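Technical note accompanying the year-one report. For the benefit of new consortium partners, we illustrate the data format agreed upon in the data management plan: each record pairs a sequence with a structure-token string. No post-processing was applied to the example shown here.
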Amino acid sequence: MTTNQQADPLIGRLVDGRYRVRARIARGGMATVYVATDLRLERRIALKVMHAHLSDDSAFQSRFIQEARAAARLADPHVVNVFDQGQDGELAYLVMEYLPGITLRELMREQRRLTIAQTITIMDAILAGLAAAHRAGIVHRDVKPENVLLAEDGRIKIGDFGLARATTANTATGQQLLGTIAYLAPELVTRGTADARSDIYALGIMLYEMLVGEQPYKGEQPMQIAFQHATESVPRPSVRNPGVPEAFDELVLWATEKSPDERPNNAQEMLDKLREIERDLGIAPAVAATTTMRRSQSDSGDLTKVMPGTMVAAADPTDPVPQTVDNATVLRRRASKRRARGAFLLTLVLLLATMAGGVGWWFGSGPGSLIAVPAVAGGSYEDAAAALTAEGFVPERVDANSTEVETGVVMSTDPGAGERLEQGSTVEVTVSSGPAQHTIEAVAGVDAETVRGMLRAANLDLTEDEQYFSDVEDGIVLNVRITPRAGGDAFGCDQGCTVFEKDTATMQVSVGPVPDVTGKSVGEATQILSDKGLGVNAETQTQHHDEIEEGRVIGIADRAEEGSWRPGESVTLIVSQGPQLFEVPDVAGQNRDQAAKTLRDAGFEVDYAVFWNGVPNGLTEVTGTDPAAGSMRRAGTKIYMIINVSG
């Protein structure tokens, strides 16, 4: 048992009165995995325990429980079984199937590229397991070699469903984009959405890596790799490894199409294609051994891997693996080779013992004591802090505005990923706080160029100006409409407002008043209005006017909708019919006062000889008018009454 294991307080502990912890076999950013004995069923199990500093975090606990539920729903020989989940005091844990062996990552690290037969065997099993998940409505979301387990008895299983979601809940926030950046589908990088086809993309990248020996995209920073996923196409594997059959080229290109609609819809569809290729090449997947191997030394407690195991290795990447040699046999052969190497290593250790002083300096305070800063960009601060703490660093949060990275998502670290530091060093984690906020002063009455400069200084997206006729002079801003980038209703900024960078701004600018065309001919008015950008309808309205002569323009009709006229709109002219005429009433036979009242009620003024004011009204009789009764005159015309003494 190693020194680290001796220092681990969980070694030897009885968890939940049932699981006796034997040894630590792996540690990650979120949990540590131990081999333990289930005392009730008397069997070895893998116990996954959430880190103590995360156990109080409800979000992490939810994700931990989700992993158990997602995997427990799948009854498939190629999915790691989850037996139980529980809480023992401060410990949150999962109980999983224990599979001695290695991960696919360890196999590729040792062998670099795999043979066609190895690739077929592994991909056939992975696709079968994922097909079961997709049928159950589960998207894995974190498909990568580290989560493919190769058991000593030849079984191949996919595990770690900690990021799994139902296929109908396909939106991923920045905190959920925790999968390794090298396997992220373009839609996860650009839109943050994922479904079963995102798993297919990750499988395509992994298939390329198995055939070629390296990933298709490289970069010093995770964001560089993410950008390549979103903008570039995966090359054919045969470009780097001429021994790859064309059928595998096509399978990789199909699985890694930029558009999800152009990929296989799910793992079963890709598996059907793979098995068609297997038949064409005459290579079938290797069958897992049916007998149980002897327990190795690691089974006695000195365990260093979660789930070891490997596949057959060949000298040439294109040579088929003999189907008669099972994986357990290969592991036994490799163990024999390792024992031989062990003797050589022992001799080397004895020689190095004489250099203990130098080695002590190297690993105590020299370059050998330094640890690489892990890549944590693209995830949440909580995950970044956990990963850095696990490596012995002290995380320090720094918030910075960004219009490109979603709020709450890690943008970078200082020192950057890959730089080597001493344990205990502080690493600044820069987290996006979203777009910066700015205050815009009142814009109403300010000239357009000045306002445009204010909006650009606030890093707003400007749309084309909206122009309006108004009493304000040409080129002066009436208002600015702000449409929030984060969503919501647009609002006015005429009296000033608060905005966020990359909000959308639309300036409403005056082009001066609508031209006055009163008294103009229709032709003259049409030309004047057209020069100002207004159209004129062919049909006009007519109206009497006492002062504007017939045929001349009185003005323009009101706008059908409320608001100001805008260039490009069409107006309707109101044309004068001249003054309105009224008929002079017939007042003959009426006395003086009756006739005067009748004429005044008709809108006319009255006149007659002054002499008749001294004659009693009853002795008067109107015999006619000037103008005569029945003639048409303007309102207000003076009518002269002709009066005589009555009969």
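Partners are asked to follow this layout when depositing records. DSSP finds 15 helices and 33 strands in the chain.
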